[in-house]
Amino acid sequence: MQRKKGFTLIEMIVAIFLITAGIGAAYLLIQKTSISTSRSLDRLTAAYLSQEGIEIVRNIRDSNWLAGIGPYNGLDTGNYEADYENSALDNYTGNPLKFDEVKGFYNYDSGDTTKFTRKIILTNHLSSDHYIDVLVEVSWMDRGKSFSIDAETYLYDWLPL
Amino acid sequence: MKIKHILNNSFSKKSNGFSLVEVLVTLFVFSLIITITMGIFVSVLKMQKRAQSAIKISNEASYAMEYMSRAIRMAQYDENGNCGANLNYEKTSDGIKFKGYDGKCRQFSCELDSGGTNVYRLKEIIDNGGVLQENYLTSSELNIVSFNVGPEYGWNPTDDIQPRITISLEIKGITKNPAELKIQTTLSQRNIDRH
């Protein structure tokens, strides 16, 4: 009988399995890292879009002061959308923001649809505590997973005008 | 049949080496493994490069946006017209100018890098009493595809509107297959616009 020098089939299968598992794990790890990096960019964009929501509401309150029509005019309890070009809030429709490549701005009227949806939730606490609660939710989907960022502020009527 | 005789003699009987088939199979398996490994390796390298440019974008964009946001938010009405035309903010050909929180005229713009690279960078110019101080806000390793300044809403102090300004940035890496970021925010001036 000839002396056996090579590997058995079982040995080969186990070896190939181990190598595949090793390489596959490393590949998966790097892929996951890469995906989470790109998600952190989405998060950054969403954070600034939520800041935009708050600033627009704040701007409406401040402009109301200047116009002398009471700080909370047009800021009733409800769900809203805010476009950077519009002076007032619009009712919430659930439509995602669009990005206009020519102007270079996120808006609701023109451009390609983006993944970001922004909901501005105003809650009026005027009768008891004299402030309004502004909560901005920016939500989006990435590879089948949903994400969201919330930003919140309270706006008071502190200016003696 | 001399050849067969030789073949038989030299290869089959006392053979210590590999047969042609064995060598072919080995080569095939070897090249298969190498190809797959290299494929994975190359795609990993690509992903890593992209991730690195994404990290760079994220760092520089958050710095630039935060820096500009603060300066723009804290801007003052340019009462004496030292910085422009007696407004809260004023658009320039490639950006914006205004009177800063410290009374100095400030300007943000997007300019071709003076270092010779073919890259656009964000630049801040502060007027220190006639001496212009220029700072780049982004590095030459990223390209500012566009820097936009939004609608002139309430920029004139004679209207009854609080000044509001929208800025947006499109940033791209300069490597092959680069990461990209489109970021925007709106700011309402903190000083109440009284006239």
Give a structural overview.
Chain A is of the alpha+beta class. Helices cover 37% and strands 29% of the residues of chain A. Chain A is built from 1 helix and 8 strands. Chain A has one helix at 9-67; strands spanning 78-81, 90-91, 98-100, 105-107, 112-113, 117-124, 131-142, 145-156. In chain A, the strands form 2 sheets. A 5-stranded antiparallel β-sheet of chain A has the order 2-1-6-7-8, covered by helices on one side. In chain A, strands 4-3-5 form a 3-stranded antiparallel β-sheet, with no helix packed on it. In chain A, a hairpin with a 2-residue loop joins strand 7 (131-142) and strand 8 (145-156). Chain A is elongated. The model of chain A has no long low-confidence stretch (mean pLDDT 92). Chain B has helices spanning 2-13, 20-73, and strands at residues 90-92, 95-99, 105-112, 120-128, 131-136, 142-149, 164-173, 180-188. Chain B contains 2 helices and 8 strands. By secondary structure, chain B is α+β, with helices and mostly antiparallel strands. Chain B has a 5-stranded antiparallel β-sheet, covered by helices on one side. Chains A and B meet through helix 1 of A and helix 2, strand 7 and strand 8 of B.
